[in-house]
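**Sequence with structure:**
===
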Amino acid sequence: MGNRKQPFGYKMALGEIVIQEAEAKLVQEIFRRYIAGESLNELTETLRHQDIPYDEGRLWNKNMVARILADVRYTGEKGYPKLIDEVQLIAANEKRSNKPQLPKKTEAQKVLRRLCGTPPSERVEQSVTDLLNGLANYPERIQHQRSPTPATHSKTQEALDNALEQQPIDEDNAKALILRLASEQYAALGNEEYETNRLRRLFSAFECVAELNADLLKSTVSEVLVTRQNVKLRLKNGQVIERSDLQ
């Protein structure tokens, strides 16, 4: 019966809605087994291995089973012959509405996932929490990371070298390039020192907690490095912190 016009378990006979016996028994079995503990997936798999189709030419699927379990007409409503008791319909719908939900991720867990690049395990989450608490206890362990010596042949440096080789020298252009190069070098050296002081202030004001703190994580950590043996934090100043640094 493709595109069935009557609910599964019924048919029309002489202008009246009557029970289709084989389908009706299957409806009753679906309710009984679902209430007894079988899942929609398990029921669907069982139904695919018997001979009565929901629609001719179509395999049973979860939506078909769910449609049967939610249909009030099986209790005798709306002029349909009764196939199940109302308590069975209630029990089935309570089970469907009480399906366990996956716990929602906290904001801190979402931030941690972004920093890890992959879904973190509970071990990783706890290790990160311990490292943050350790830094709160020992903020002086946050050290300024010396920037590597600026590359000799940066674009600005190359432009300055070229300008100084030209004769006569364009003094205004050379001065502008010297100032730009100095600014770049100062920024490279100054940002990390500023970040180090900022991080120390943040951790000094932070009280140790049992759960991961989203705000502290976002404002202090740029990357979480995870290996089988260890979990490390790359702080915003470039410093990498691991457990041994806080002992």
